[in-house]
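Posting here for the record, re: iron/sulfur cluster.
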Amino acid sequence: MKSDVVLEESMHLDFLEEIYSIPGGEKIKDCIQCGTCSGSCPTSYVMDYTPRKVFAMIRAGMRDEVLSCNTLWLCTSCYSCYVRCPQDIKITDIMYALKRISIKDGKYPKGSDAQELSKMFTHIVNKYGRNHELELIQRYFLKTKPLKLLQNIPIGLKLLTHGRLPLLPTKIRNISQLQKIIRKAKSLGGF
Amino acid sequence: MEELVYSYYPGCSLEATSKAYDRSTRAVAERLGIRLIELEDWNCCGATAYMSVQELLSFAISARNLALAEQYGRPLVTPCAACFTTLNKTNTYLAEFPKLKEQIDEILDEGGLTYNGTIQVRHLLSVFTQDVGTEAIQAKAKRDLRGLKVACYYGCQIVRPLHEFDDPEMPTTMDTLFEQLGAEAVYFPMKAKCCGGSLIGSTEDVALRLIKNILLCADQYEADCIVTACPLCQINLDAYQERVCRQYNLNFQIPILFFTQLIGLAFGVPNEDLGLRTNIVPAKPLLEKYQALLERK
Ligand code: SF4
Ligand code: SF4
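Prediction output follows.
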């Protein structure tokens, strides 16, 4: 789309700035495109672009392509790349940052729902102060793939009968303190 | 020896899917003379999910726990690999990035809390192997584990990204511990590879494949069981094992134990206190083999 050229220019600067703003983010400048990250990654075989490619694309300002690729949502946070990168780039942290920008801009790929899992998790913890696994899986599967919920009933039942799926959540005592902290953190912005 | 006292952070999984990890941790710690005092009113560490939604928020809720722990001054120990990484990373980044620290101070203040960065975050495995020591652990064993073949599975987050007590690629602390207790720690090159983590919920096929690689390796080296120090690894390898076998046309039943459950066995802790009945792949064949070994000795 030719008409977007100017807009894209400014977006691409913002994009790098956004990455620079996370702790240790400026290090992305030092990437030497060696590919160690891609070779270490357990899920690169299903990614639209491998981690190395994603870093090249970020620097080339390919904002939309990066934010809408499945790579971000296939990152398991295994940190294999992070400990091996010869340039000490905090790769996993950058993957997290990309997930956040992708959620903020509504750019995640159609059909992807890993972002829903994260969002529901935070919703539950904001409410109780702790996670409640039963509620999380119910809500998540109902919202994203009800069929999967049915398929997962056998596993759910197994967990239940083995005493591993409490029906009720536990709530922390000083939830109001936690919620104050959450509100303040949100008000300080960032992404 | 000076008494070892810690603030104990079980984490959300240990209250639910991994209650057995909590029970066996408490039972084993008690016999080791370690005092674990549960951190009053702890909240969820945020796991990997918060970091995918908002960064500052993620550090903030994690920091509330550090601030609470600082009121007691004891090191904060958790058996959960994910909690360990999240809390430890928050702690390290607060020390490393002053701008982040400033913002977190402001946020905590809103809740009437302060954090001065004095708390050490520890994983239970490092407390056992470093503070107590494998020999002292062996000294408490009522019987040895001779004849059992164990695949020690570390997964990701106890050794990465911060690898303070073990190697990030080929960790050995758990192997050493179980060898000391008499078991054979089998060759297990998949020991620090990823189980897929929460992809089991979002992209199941990919996770199943990663789980398959780990199980297959343990089976190939004839492990009687896999031991792990992570609730998510445990549930992925345990609850999804049947599905993996169906998908890949495989046939095995490898019990997946928390490392504290196996230590408990050597300590003679009653099975109920180790929560062995909550394992999905039954631990029974393992227990029977062990019983037979004991009788032969
Ligand atoms: S390992 Fe580091 S330097 Fe090499 S391509 Fe990946 S990010 Fe760049
Ligand atoms: S942390 Fe993410 S990008 Fe890095 S190796 Fe693991 S899955 Fe791949």
